[in-house]
Amino acid sequence: MDDVVLAEKWPVLGRHELAAGWLRIWADLGRAPRTIDAYARGLAEYLNVCERENVDPAGARRWSAPGRAPTAARISGRGRAGCGGSASVKK
After folding, report:
1. Is the pLDDT confidence value at 32 over 90?
2. Domains of the chain by residue range
3. Which of 84 and 17 is assigned the larger pLDDT?
């Protein structure tokens, strides 16, 4: 899928060269066009949230957004943990 086509569908991708490069790598590796389209859609949603919350997408972490309360899953300890262990709550 062409960078221009992606930027037309999701203008936010045109504003983030690193994200466009990441998608280009997957396309160059031979991923199916629908796969690239799905990756682009998800990446565009992520980038839009980063822009809205004024967070650098390359350096974003779970707790990057100022004024955001932790999710209920993290508060309750029900977040996913690896290999059956208990989830740790980051404070």
Report:
1. yes
2. 3-76
3. 17
Residue 21 confidence (pLDDT): 92
Residue 4 and residue 38 in contact, taking contact as beta carbons nearer than 8 Å: no
Look at 73 and 61; give whichever has higher pLDDT: 61
Query: b/e for 38-53, b at 16 or more Cβ within 10 A?
Result: ebbeebbeebeebeee
Give the 3-state secondary structure percentages of the chain, helix then strand then coil, rounded to 5: 55, 0, 45
Closest CA to 74 of 57, 59, 58, 61: 61
Q: Could you give the CA distance from residue 22 to residue 83 in angstroms, rounded to a whole number?
A: 29
- Closest to 60 measured CA to CA, from 10, 16, 27, 11: 16
Residue the block writes with tokens 């997408």: 57
